[in-house]
Amino acid sequence: MICGGRIVGAMDISDTYSPEKRDQIMRGAAAVFAADGYEGASMARIAAVAGVSKGTLYNYFDSKAALFTSYVAESCERGLGQIFDGADHDGDPAAVLRAIGRRMVAMMLSDVGLAVYRVVIAEAAKFPDLARAFFDAGPARAIGFLADWLAEETRRGRLSVPDPAFAAEQYFSLCQTELVLRRKLEMLGDPSPDAIDRVVEAAITMFLRSYGPPVM
Questions:
Q1: What confidence tens digit (pLDDT) does each residue in 3-39 have?
Q2: pTM to 2 decimal places
Q3: Is 94 inside a domain boundary?
């Protein structure tokens, strides 16, 4: 589980064991969780797919729950990096929202994003703690990052957002229109960049109509 930002029951990357071996295990775990789900996956199968012994696997992760939590947390961390790293947070608000919206949709529709989501949803009813770990590591942090930026833009007078956390979640929801749910349900193939841009531009227009700078 995650406790104070640290994954309990899983070894830290900085530990004395091989980072390459750990990555090898994580790749095997990702393949097994995607194919078998959390409940259907076994540590024996994960070890076999990863090409390591069960003993080696347990040296790195002392339980399947710890391994799955690490898999989810690290997938979310990479996704958050794709969305927010390198963004010019001092730029024009519309440009910042555009960059974040495009990246967020691309991350959610990526093979990894879809795989993690589907595994978590399939197991959420039986394993609510794992669902909570996913939410806390991914969506909640993304909302928090965007909310912090919205609050700062409001302080600077460039936006007027009374509830930044609510508005952040609202914006992410607008950016998913027509695309994300249909893709998750296999009703849609990979959308084109133009299709993503159309949705994101509409989201920006609606968002700024509600939260644009106050009229003096």
A1: 433 344 444 444 457 899 999 999 999 999 989 989 9
A2: 0.82
A3: yes
Give me the torsion for CA of 57, 63, 67, 73, rounded to 10°. -150
Using one digit for the tens of pLDDT, what is the confidence trace for 47-98? 999 999 999 999 999 999 999 999 999 989 988 988 888 777 788 999 999 9
Helices 64-84 and 128-137, packing angle to 10 deg: 20
Domain that includes residue 173, residue range: 2-211
Burial 35-57 (b: 16+ CB within 10 A, else e): eeebeebebebbbebbebeeebb
How many structural domains is the chain composed of?
1
CA distance linking residue 142 with residue 121, whole number of Å: 19
CATH code of the domain containing 20: 1.10.357.10
Asked if residue 216 is part of any domain, the answer here is no
